[in-house]
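Anyone opening a protein record will find just a pair of labelled lines. With that in mind, the following record should read easily:
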Amino acid sequence: MHYPCSTVQDLPQFDTLDVDSQLKAVLAAIAEARSTIDQMVKQQLTAGEFLRALEQLQLSIDNPFSPISHLHGVANTDDIREAYNSAIQALTDYGNWVGQHRGLYQCYEAIDTSTLNSADQEAVRQSLLSFKLSGIDLPEEQQQQLADINNQLSKLSTEFSNNVLDATDRWHHDVTGEDALAGMPPHAIAAAKEAAERADIQGYRLTLNMPSYLAVMMYADDAALRETLYTAYATRASDQGPDAGQSDNGPIINTIRALRHQKAQLLGYQNYAELSLAKKMADSTGQVTGFINDLAEQSLPIAKEEFAQLEEYAGRTLNPWDVAYYSEKLKDAQYSVNDEALKPYFSVESAIDGLFDVTSRLFGISIKQADAPVWHKDVRFYHIYDNDEIIAGFYFDLFAREQKRGGAWMADCRSRMMIGDKVQRPIAYLTCNFSAPTKTTPSLLSLNDVTTLFHEFGHGLHHMLTAQTSLDVSGINGVPWDAVELPSQFLENWCWQPDVIKAISSHYETGEQLPQHLLDAAIKAKNFQSAMAMVRQLEFGLFDFELHKDYNPDAPVSVDDTIQSVRERVAVVKPPKWHRFANGFSHIFAGGYAAGYYSYKWAEVLSADAFEAFEEEGIFNTETGKRFKNEILQAGGSRSAMQSFVAFRHREPKVDALLRHSGLVKEVANV
């Protein structure tokens, strides 16, 4: 049953939205904000009046920009791309202007924070730091230089993202007979058939969208076919491979690195990694590299054993495009289970129902679908209720398609804040790229897909269950980047609880729950090749951090040499020299993770330790759930991440739970 949409603010009218009008609204709001700020700094406002007025100005900009930004990720047409580029340019200029506005800075400095509540105090502290990082103390000439760098970085980031999307959408591989797809699951073959029909050709079309790509890499018996897709995917937006040179991100990466280093040095930091840590939990670059290397030291020997076992099973030296294929076969041989055996029990509908049940039991909320304008027929909108009161809402856009960037993410549509005497309810965009339904089957998920769904919803809950009304610390705002993954990774843990898996599972044809033997096998297989997965993430994190920490403008080490050096130290699967991983590494070149990809593992320590509290007190213990909701989710960025963690756990985090959950240390029996 659908419920009518009734929120304080109007939602974006995606069904009739005109991007040109949205862009004009953004530009008008920016112009008005500039004028208003110039007037405000001359007025005698109380601290509260000053902060609330600035929030309203930010709201007037965010609301019209939000749908443009979102559509750029999920429906990237030429018109939307053009509007987004124009808006980003204007927003970057505005951000530079605000960050270097001497009068505004002086108003913040003059605030007597003792008159403010703790959330506003933290907001002021973070704002003052942002001024410093915007160059408020620099001479005018260097301020302009910094602004120019920020403008260039903004443009390059967008260009990088567009190149990855274009390269992904541009490539396809067509086969005429089904024999070429031997080994692939029926639903993947059906999807390839429907993709060919949409292109008005005979046969089957394979693409680089993740559901198509993974189906080939994990199940196609034809090694040459796997190599074909691996090569195309590994060389997207680069100077190599079948699409060589059409949208090469290599020069963009080099320019981004140089500009980031210049920016860091202008602001008084030795390198961009140091600058990145200014707003993170980690105290120093040495602490980060030590953290990564410590995990690598504990996991690399086990990862090498896992890979040796895989090659022994395959009976030969494996190429990178063989690893996923033989891994699935080995997992099936060891545990009598594989992703395809499980998928029929995890339709997207049963997974969503299970997700909502888990979060309801943990946090005392309920979720109901509602009517709202959407940008695609597959998108759904929901309200979150606390008792009978609507407190938040979110969109689900779950299926892969063209003009939609890959991966999974949460973004804010609206943040919780005061508008006059009313609270604007938070609204989230939750986006995944699962296999779309075909004519014969619904969308079927692997357990990894289910954990992705839970992961993104964890981000969404962090945004939507906040109790803060100060915009700068509401939801994930103001949360250090290396702590922002805590709620998302935390929620993943429930996907591996036997009772939860049973509750989530429902065979799409028979309605039968997952049989006990498959349930037992799936849980036993949870940590299959977990050390290989660990070192792969450490490889990405160390590459990112060293790329930014060790940059020397006089003799820059190439990106390829940097990643090869990292792989020699921590990798067990060594890609070929022509592999261009960095050219598609959107997290650090088109996202917020530059010199911060280590955050995934850093936050996983926090999330594993937090989940251990539920293991100790009961995985659905309502008091423990309430404490997590109050101290982590509702707190948002209103205090330091360590303070929030300690308030929940009553101590600082330990790495033990992560190693145990990953199967890298043995359980110790109580005797």
